[in-house]
Design brief:
The protein is α/β, with parallel strands linked by helices. The protein is 31% helix and 24% strand.
């Protein structure tokens, strides 16, 4: 079965033409769900248990009727529409407190689709560059010792502009045979990079970035990064909620310590179970690209809520053929907004926080354990 609607969606030139692609997205999502139903016995059982007739998914209003799968389900079950040995890549999320991990695979066509998505989104936001940059990744150094998706995503990010050097905050130490956090290494690297002509680009959790910058400010270290430098963050504050500062305070310390202005600070949203990237606009709003739709659901009834109301974030996308990620329910609370001064008509997602699921252990918490040591 040819995936004609999915292919057409990922060929669409405007990555934020939500209104113009509503019908195409509906057709692509139905096509994707049918594919998984035909290739995954477990997914077919889920559809049957909810008496979901995919032929009735005809308009954008109907996509709410495709059963959503909680993200925690992928930490407890293998759910795939392709044998693992035929997947192009296999990625895991960070584990739960009991050692459970989401295992999500992607086929070669999925990767190609994902590349086209990244190409158009990053071209729109002018992230692509031919100029070499120094990368500062507030995450894991790529080694054979871990395959968490955040490591793979961060490593992929270093291909957006040629890398002069890559600095990683969490590095493998052969002497103790484990990962160790080395923020002083990052600090010395930033000082060195400030004296070069190459821009820097950072990626990582805002909490770790903030903690390092706060330490540098207390030490009266103030730098001026080369023109064209970008500071990018993603993943939220996670278990550092109590230490979270408001966005303006974060932007202010970035400019104070690194000399990078707010216009060059970018936030991303995404998940291993929803491999669609949401870069923010210049007003730091996470606009929904055409490759995804977001439903905000009532935490008790799971009925979709109106724009501006807070509820559970349900993410939908037809991107993946290898794993049934057609509709996944996060443990995030969020609000979907209309209207933005940047001019984009696509709605934007505001993440408020997480529901109290004690079983979830995030990438941030795993790294925090290393920091505590």
């Amino acid at each position: 079965m040819k995936k004609k609607y999915v292919r057409k969606l990922f060929r669409h030139k405007n990555p934020y033409d939500i209104k113009g692609t509503n019908q195409l997205f509906t057709d692509a999502l139905r096509e994707n769900a049918i594919h998984h139903k035909n290739h995954s016995t477990e997914y077919k059982e889920i559809l049957d248990n909810f008496a979901c007739d995919l032929s009735q998914i005809k308009t954008i209003k109907d996509i709410k009727d495709i059963p959503f799968i909680p993200m925690v389900y992928f930490k407890r079950h293998d759910l795939n529409s392709m044998p693992f040995d035929k997947m192009a890549i296999k990625a895991t999320s960070s584990g739960t407190s009991s050692g459970l991990k989401s295992k999500v695979g992607m086929g070669y066509t999925d990767l190609w689709r994902g590349f086209k998505m990244i190409w158009r989104l990053f071209r729109y936001h002018k992230f692509w560059s031919l100029k070499r940059v120094n990368y500062f990744i507030f995450g894991y150094e790529p080694t054979k010792h871990t395959d968490v998706v955040i490591m793979k995503s961060a490593n992929g990010f270093t291909k957006v502009a040629p890398a002069k050097k890559r600095y990683y905050a969490i590095r493998w130490d052969d002497e103790v045979n484990k990962y160790k956090v080395d923020l002083d290494y990052m600090k010395q690297g930033l000082i060195k990079a400030s004296k070069q002509r190459f821009p820097i680009r950072t990626l990582g959790f805002p909490a770790y970035t903030y903690f390092l910058l706060k330490e540098m400010k207390e030490e009266d270290i103030k730098l001026t990064m080369p023109k064209g430098s970008l500071l990018t963050i993603g993943g939220g504050w996670k278990q550092f909620y109590a230490e979270q500062v408001d966005k303006q305070a974060f932007y202010d310390i970035v400019e104070d310590v690194l000399g990078i202005k707010e216009d060059n600070i970018v936030e991303f949203f995404g998940a291993v179970e929803h491999p669609v990237v949401f870069p923010d606009c210049k007003y730091h709003h996470l606009h929904v690209p055409i490759y995804s739709r977001v439903l905000i659901r009532d935490p008790e009834t799971f009925e979709p809520l109106k724009k501006g109301e807070i509820g559970l974030v349900n993410l939908l996308s037809p991107l993946n053929q290898a794993t049934p990620l057609t509709s996944v329910m996060t443990d995030d609370l969020g609000i979907l907004h209309e209207g933005c001064e940047c001019g984009l008509e696509a709605p934007w997602l505001e993440i408020i926080g997480r529901v109290g699921i004690t079983d979830i252990k995030t990438c941030a918490q795993g790294a925090q354990a290393l920091m505590d040591e």
